[in-house]
Design a protein that fits this description.
Blueprint: H1 3-17, H2 28-33, H3 35-49, E1 65-71, E2 80-85, E3 88-92, E4 108-110, H4 114-118, E5 123-127, H5 133-136, H6 139-142, E6 151-153, H7 155-167, E7 176-178, E8 185-187, E9 190-196, E10 205-211, E11 214-218, H8 237-246, E12 249-255, H9 268-281, E13 286-290, H10 295-307, E14 311-315, H11 317-328, E15 339-341, E16 353-357, H12 367-372, E17 386-390, H13 398-410, E18 414-416, H14 431-441, E19 445-449, H15 453-467, E20 481-486, E21 489-496, E22 502-505, E23 508-511, H16 515-526, E24 528-536, E25 541-542, E26 547-551, H17 556-580, H18 586-605, E27 610-617
Parallel strand pairs: 3-5, 5-6, 6-7, 11-12, 12-19, 13-16, 13-17, 14-15, 14-16, 17-18, 24-27
Antiparallel strand pairs: 1-2, 1-20, 2-3, 4-22, 8-9, 9-10, 10-11, 20-21, 22-23, 24-25, 24-26
The protein binds zinc ion (2 copies).
Amino acid sequence: MGKLDQWLKKNLSIADSDTKNPQKNEKKTFKKKNFYKKDQKDQKVHTKVQKPQKSHRPQKTKGKLRIIPLGGLDEVGKNMMALEYGDDIIVIDMGFEFPSDDMLGIDYVIPDVSYLEENSKKIRGIVLTHGHLDHIGGIPYILPKLNFPPMYGTKLTMGLVDKKIEEFKLKNFTKAHTIDPDQTLKLGQFTVEFFRVAHSIPDAVGVIVTTPAGKIVHTGDFKFDDNPSGRQKKADIHKLEKLGREKNVLALFSDSTNALVPGHTMSEDQVGKTLEEIIKKVDKRLIIASFSSLIGRIQQILDYAQKYGRQVYVSGRSMRDNLEIARKLGFIQHPKGLVQDIRKYKDTPDHKTLILTTGSQGESVSALTRISNDDHKNIKIKQGDTIVLSSSPIIGNERAIATVINRLCMKGAKVIHKQMMDVHTSGHGKRDELKRMIDLVKPKYFVPIHGEYFMRQGHALLAEEECNIPNQNIILIKNGDVLELGHGKVEVSKEKVETKYILIDGSGEGHEGSQVQVDRQMMSENGTLVILINMTKNTGKLKGDPDVISRGFIYMHESEEIRKEVAEMTKQAFNRLIKKDPKASKHDIKQYIKQTLDKYTHTKLERRPLIMPIIIEK
Ligand SMILES: [Zn+2]
Ligand SMILES: [Zn+2]
């Protein structure tokens, strides 16, 4: 099919729906409120459209453990992995991902769970490693499709999950269980144990799963930190040592995020010391921007604010929410009155003020961005303010952060970031730590997970070159691959499981390449051309000239002539079609006009706007 044909085919379906105007973002709140019902409806459509092909069905591989990554391997985000043995399935993590720049108007991307939907009766539980959104963010969207299997996670993780499912009004349906990391779970034929790891959020664990086909270890996100921040518990090194001594781990699945970064992550303790220096020395107003999930870091900041007599004001919804959850569960402790909502900020002297805010990633609606735009109700930047970005940019956010920093500096603030001082450390182990994990666990097979391909490849090379794992025992897999483990061996099966990108926006759920996405892409690149055609009722005759409205399509000084030409062509096309087929339906007319105008804009202007003819009968 030629490009034009493809385009016409796509537009044909818009012609059906454009008068209904279905793609509006104002449905956001509606969707949340009615989520459960709506999702049930979605589910029906979903199974109808994406009828699983035969090849997706598990061939009964007796006595083998099947491991299927449904997300997290072509990206940093939407981590999710299914383990299947006989009639039992468990799932490790259920994350989402923030969209890339070309996914216009999309809020989140979630893993494709059609394989699990087909097998939902077998699911014995969802095991969560920690409370970051790339590990728990998909829960409210996915759980209803799987008939709400029970979830298991540590105290803070389940506190954060609880908040999510409450927001989506799913609380009555979910079975959420808080586990102690020293506890053992029996889920079908799986025995699940946990080990504490250090990470950038407290209460993170790795998972040890014992099955009749062998034992596997999944690290979750981890680093090694001998001096973790706040009042966090240390990692369970002894459990890992024990695994190494027993030498019976068939495969290790390990976090690859920093596999190309040499050395060891800086301790949170060092970051704390630097922050203390800053809080002590700065004699004017201080604003610290960080991730709201960095609970340990936030505890340190609160401790120093207390020590040096600063009142803390909190700005940003996720910062407020997470602080509240962490406080309730005992992960944050501070004297009463130390922390106030930013809305109460009024007369505190500058040298006694510390503002804690979100927005360290330059997100367009975040508190720090609003502050930099002079758009924050309670905070206006002034000469002498010091702003600390206790964070590091996530890939793709660098430009947005630079813009925010520029604006803050132009307003007279001094901005401190991690290139200048030790105000941040990563939550993911660097090469020395990754090597240490492999050396401790001593697995037979090694599978790098969590990260983009180049990161996982770096991790594979590290395992081979520095940990003596034989090349043939290192397996690089993709989302949707099926790993088969049994009889002391691990192999990639020929079978594939569907892993489309499922896109979530205010109006619902779709997949990549869906009509809504194609329309948005077209509008963003070429603008829109709306043609209002007035028709006298039941006569098939035009009433006056068509109105042509364009947005983002052509510059105004050229547009008058083009507008006239488009109107004239519309008129001619309309009359030509009616002459040929007096009974032509509105749909036919729109389609014909679209085709005619597309040829014109493409050949004459070399542009392909989204063309929307609208017929008004009077
Ligand atoms: Zn994490
Ligand atoms: Zn992660």
